[in-house]
Design goal:
The chain is mainly α. It has a two-stranded antiparallel sheet.
C-alpha cells in the first residue's frame, strides 16, 4: 500500500540521494587512509572522544530502538515502555561504564581488533578465539533486523516495492563498507548520531497534543483503545506478561547487552585513556535519550487505534514508518526519515565492519594456517578476503531479510533477539572473569559460554517455563536471562575447583 504523497516521494528521492553522496564522500576519504586490516578495524585517524562517544550511542541504539521497538510499544503499551525504555537502558549504561575501562586496558595492550581476538589473547587460547569467531555469525540476525527496518522506512517514504528497496540498501551499504572501515565509520556515525538526536526530540515531541488534558487525559485515550495498553503488565504479550519479564529479565539482559563487538570495541578507537570519561559521558547521555524514543509507539497507537491504514492492517515492523509518513508535514517528515535511516546505518556499518573483520582475522586466517599474513606485496590479502566476506554476508542478509519481511514471527525483532542474545550471553562471563579475576581459566570461560548457548536455545525453542513466573523461553529476553544466570554459576564453579591458572585449552 502507498503511504507517502507524491510531494514527499519527490523530495525524499532528492534528500536521500544527497545523504548517500555525503556518506560516499566520507567513505572515500576514510578509504584513502585504510592500508591494512588493522586500519579497517580500528582506524588510523586520531578521533575525538566526543565523536567516538556519539558513534557509540549511534551503534548501541539502532534501527531496533528507533524503528522496530516502537512497534512493540504500539502493540502492547506501557508494559513495553517500562521494559525497553527503563529496565534495559538502566542496566546497559551501568554495565557500559563498568566494563569499558577494563576491556580497553587489555584490548589496547594486545592491539585486539575483534572480540574473538580479545578472548583468545585474554585466555591464551587459539581454540577459544575461533569458537567466538564462529559465535559471531549469530550477529547476522541483527544485520537482518536493520535491513528490514530500513526497508520499511524507505519503501514507505518513496512508495517503492520492498524487495527492490532491500536489494538497493544492501548493495549500497555493504558496497561502501568494503572500503571505508573505521576511518569512515566514526565520521558517518557522528553525523548519524547528530541526526538521530534531532529526530529523537522531534518524535518525542510529536505527541504533545495528546497531553492537552494532562497525563491523565493521555492515559484515558490509550485506555479507550485497549485498557491493557495502560497496564504495567500485559498478559496478551509473550514479552511483558509479568514483572520478571519486564524488569528482572530485561535488567540481566541489559547488563550483558554491551558485550557485543561493535559496542565494547568502540573504546579501542580512543587514542588515550584520559579520553575514556568524556567518551562515556557523551555516549551514555545521548543513548539514554535515544532509548526513550520507544514512547513514540504510544503516539502511533493513538493515531492508528486499530493498527490499520486505509483498511489494510499495518505490520508491526511498519507502524512507526506509517506514523511518520502520515503525521508529519513533508519537511519535518524528511528529517525524521533521514534520522531513522541514520539509526539503521549507524549500527549496520559497525556490524559489517566487526563481523567481517572477525570472520577474516579470527576464523579464516587461523584455519588456513595464517596464510593471509604471508603475503608481502600489493594489496594485503586480508583486505581482499575481508571484501569477499562482506559480499557473502550481503547475499545471506538479502535472503534472510526478505524471509523476515514476508513471514516474520510477529516481528523481525524476535528473530534478531534470539541470535544476538545468545551471542552476548556466551560472552558475558568470559569478559567479566577476564577483567575482574586474577585467575584466568579457559576451561571455566569455555564452560560458561557453552552453558549459555545451550541453555538459551533450549529455553527458546523448547519454550521452557521459569518457575514461579508467567515467563517462558518464547521470550528471547527470558531465555537469555536464564542462560546468563546459569553460565555465571557454571563459570564460577569451574573456576573455583581449578587447581591452577590455565593458559590454554588442549
Amino acid at each position: 500500500m502507498e503511504l507517502a504523497s507524491q510531494q514527499l516521494v519527490t523530495a525524499g528521492w532528492i534528500l536521500i540521494s544527497l545523504y548517500a553522496l555525503a556518506i560516499l564522500f566520507f567513505v572515500i576519504r576514510g578509504a584513502r587512509k585504510t592500508k591494512n586490516i588493522d586500519d579497517y578495524a580500528l582506524g588510523s585517524i586520531m578521533f575525538s572522544p566526543v565523536a567516538v562517544g556519539l558513534s557509540l550511542a549511534a551503534s548501541i541504539t539502532s534501527a531496533a530502538t528507533f524503528i522496530i521497538n516502537p512497534g512493540f510499544v504500539a502493540l502492547f503499551g506501557l508494559s513495553g515502555v517500562l521494559s525497553m525504555a527503563i529496565a534495559l537502558p538502566l542496566a546497559a549504561v551501568i554495565s557500559l561504564a563498568v566494563l569499558t575501562k577494563g576491556f580497553r586496558k587489555h584490548g589496547s595492550s594486545v592491539k585486539a581488533l575483534t572480540m574473538a581476538q580479545w578472548m583468545g589473547t585474554m585466555y591464551k587460547s587459539k581454540a577459544y578465539s575461533i569458537f567466538f569467531a564462529v559465535l559471531s555469525l549469530l550477529l547476522i540476525t541483527f544485520i537482518v533486523l536493520i535491513c528490514v527496518g530500513l526497508t520499511k522506512v524507505i519503501s514507505s517514504a518513496l512508495n517503492l516495492p520492498e524487495f527492490y528497496t532491500l536489494l538497493g540498501i544492501v548493495v549500497f551499504v555493504f558496497g561502501y563498507m568494503m572500503y571505508g572501515g573505521a576511518n569512515s565509520l566514526v565520521y558517518t556515525n557522528t553525523i548519524q548520531a547528530i541526526l538521530m538526536l534531532i529526530v529523537a526530540f522531534i518524535l518525542l515531541g510529536s505527541g504533545y497534543q495528546h497531553f492537552s488534558e494532562g497525563v491523565h487525559g493521555f492515559i484515558a485515550k490509550l485506555s479507550a483503545i485497549d485498557p491493557k495498553l495502560v497496564q504495567t503488565t500485559n498478559e496478551t504479550s509473550f514479552l511483558f506478561r509479568d514483572y520478571f519479564e519486564i524488569f528482572i529479565a530485561q535488567f540481566i539482559v541489559g547488563i550483558a547487552i554491551v558485550c557485543q563487538p561493535h559496542i565494547l570495541t568502540k573504546s579501542l578507537l580512543l587514542k588515550s585513556d584520559k579520553d575514556v570519561n568524556k567518551y562515556l559521558t557523551v555516549g551514555i547521555t545521548v543513548q539514554v535519550i535515544f532509548f526513550l524514543v520507544v514512547i513514540t509507539g504510544l503516539f502511533a497507537r493513538i493515531s492508528f487505534p486499530e493498527l490499520t491504514f486505509n483498511g489494510n492492517p499495518i505490520p508491526m515492523d511498519g507502524i512507526l514508518s506509517a506514523y511518520v509518513v502520515r503525521e508529519f508535514p513533508v519537511f519535518i517528515g524528511l528529517i525524521v526519515i533521514l534520522g531513522l535511516i541514520s539509526a539503521g546505518l549507524s549500527t549496520l556499518e559497525g556490524l559489517i565492519q566487526s563481523l567481517s573483520t572477525s570472520i577474516t582475522n579470527d576464523l579464516i586466517n587461523p584455519l588456513t594456517n595464517n596464510a593471509l599474513d604471508k603475503q608481502r606485496t600489493g594489496l594485503p590479502l586480508k583486505i581482499i578476503v575481508n571484501r569477499a566476506v562482506i559480499v557473502l554476508l550481503a547475499v545471506i542478509s538479502i535472503y534472510l531479510s526478505w524471509n523476515q519481511i514476508v513471514e516474520p514471527k510477529l516481528s523481525v525483532g524476535i528473530f534478531a533477539q534470539n541470535g544476538v542474545y545468545a551471542y552476548f550471553s556466551a560472552a558475558f562471563v568470559p569478559i567479566l572473569m577476564g577483567m575482574f579475576f586474577h585467575k584466568k581459566s579457559v576451561t571455566a570461560a569455555f564452560s560458561a559460554s557453552i552453558t549459555a548457548v545451550v541453555v538459551h536455545f533450549s529455553m527458546y525453542y523448547g519454550q521452557l517455563a521459569v518457575p514461579f513466573t508467567k515467563a517462558t523461553g518464547e521470550n528471547p529476553g527470558v531465555a537469555a536471562a536464564v542462560a546468563i544466570t546459569l553460565s555465571v554459576i557454571v563459570g564460577l564453579l569451574v573456576l573455583r575447583f581449578s587447581k591452577h591458572e590455565e593458559v590454554s585449552l588442549k
